[in-house]
Specification:
By secondary structure, this protein is mostly helical. The chain is 47% helix and 8% strand. It is built from four helices and two strands; from the N terminus they run H-H-H-E-E-H. It has a two-stranded antiparallel sheet.
């Protein structure tokens, strides 16, 4: 069952035209991976450093990393850091599918 707002009225949501900051970070990191600037098995810089370089909050970087992990482009290894996965056909297919629908 679809839920309405707290007062029972349907929610009025505005369409999102500009990509949010985490989406922009996802796009930028994806390009670096696809272009080979970030290589397979390479560690990403720490969250704090990425956030400073990109001019965004650590939460934005964290969200982008989670998205890229779900797409198979990154792996988070606790105690190690965030590792770039080798580009295989499945993550690439997901990236292109997402780009076509986005």
């Amino acid at each position: 069952k679809a839920r309405a707002g707290n007062d029972g009225a349907a929610l009025s949501l505005a369409s999102l035209e500009q990509p949010n900051r985490s989406t922009q970070v996802v796009e930028q990191l994806t390009q670096l991976i696809l272009n080979g600037e970030l290589k397979s098995k390479e560690l990403l810089p720490p969250e704090r450093d990425l956030a400073a370089q990109l001019g965004v909050s650590r939460n934005v970087v964290r969200e982008a990393i989670k998205i890229l992990q779900s797409r198979g482009l990154l792996t988070i290894r606790h105690g190690v850091g965030t590792v770039v996965n080798g580009v295989s056909s499945e993550p690439l297919q997901q990236v292109f599918t997402h780009a076509l629908h986005g």
